[in-house]
Amino acid sequence: MSSRNPITIEVLETLDAIERRGSYAKAAEELNKATSAVSYAVQKLEEQLDIALFQRQGRRAVLTPAGQLMLEEGRHILSATARLANSAKEVATGWEPRIRVALEATQAAPAFFCALAEFLKTHGNIEIDVCESVLNGGWEALAADRVELLVGAPGPVPRHQGYRTIALGQADLLPVIAQRHPLAHLLTTPQALAEQLPSLRRVISHDTATLDIARSEGLVRSGQNLYVQTMEQKLEAIVAGIGIGHLPRQRIQGYLDSGILKVLPLQEHRQPEVFLAWKISNKGRGLKALTDRLAQVNWLGID
Fold first, then answer.
1. Which residues of the chain have pLDDT under 70?
2. What is the pLDDT of residue 36?
């Protein structure tokens, strides 16, 4: 008769916490356990499997190749069990316990979180998990069931994927340059600016897509690019005079009013339409209530 499998959900959660937090002590704090209990759980698993899962590098606990394999596969198991628990609760009540939302980096975060605050006043038992997406990354996350809802996803909407969408209007992105940029003085001489534009460094937010072909929107490509991870990083890089790029008006209006940023006088292409999007197969009552709330938001802030 085979012995009991030593790999449990609890020990997988322990490995996950150690790897994310970098130490047994910090993992113990997250798991609300004693450090000795976390250390014992790992030691016991290593003894039962006769393998090493972690090795010390200074003060940090680093996974061995065997530990890395166990964690990667274990995270799939943790994700599957979380989905199973959520699905069971949703079947029983119609209300999902958790909604994962991808907020497009160009969207008005204040408008979103104000709407979310109103939603949570009446649906406080639903846990909301928000991440930032860029361009194709949101659609990819929705297709892979990493999120249930996209907010501000740029068109075009992928066809034949079983998505339901609500149009939120057009993105309001402005091509800008910082007042401190070495070539900002060319704003007064459009011809000279047009000649220099192809050589100006562009600041680009990474498309968060990992499987499909990534997209880049906006200014004509040049040989010099600076890639950043978030819209906040993009804003700070442009303000620092490193390069030029498109930024959402609602996020930079104060910089425009103060003169820190200047709008580049370019012939602009049509702004992309943006959408709320979710899978038709997702019939959770919480998702419906949240999308109904978000559909009423004045995303442009115009009365």
1. 1-3, 90, 208-223, 268-270, 300-303
2. 92
The answer for residues whose C-beta is within 8 angstroms of residue 291's C-beta and 6 or more apart is 149, 166, 276, 278
Cβ-based neighbours of 169, under 8 Å, separated by 6 or more: 273, 274, 299, 300
d(CA 107, CA 100): 17
Q: How buried is residue 157: exposed, middle or buried, by Cβ count under 10 Å (0-12/13-18/19+)?
A: middle
**C-beta neighbour count of 28 within 10 angstroms:** 20
Render pLDDT for 42-81 as a digit per residue (tens, 0 to 9).
Answer: 999 999 999 999 887 877 778 899 999 999 999 999 988 9
Please give the backbone phi and psi of residue 64, each rounded to the nearest 5 degrees, phi first: -80, 170
Return the CATH fold of 173-263: D-Maltodextrin-Binding Protein; domain 2 (3.40.190)
pLDDT for res 100: 95
- In the chain, where the domains are located: 9-88, 94-171+273-295, 173-263
Q: Label residues 204-227 b or e (16+ Cβ within 10 Å = b).
A: bbbbbbeeeeeeebbbeeeeeeee
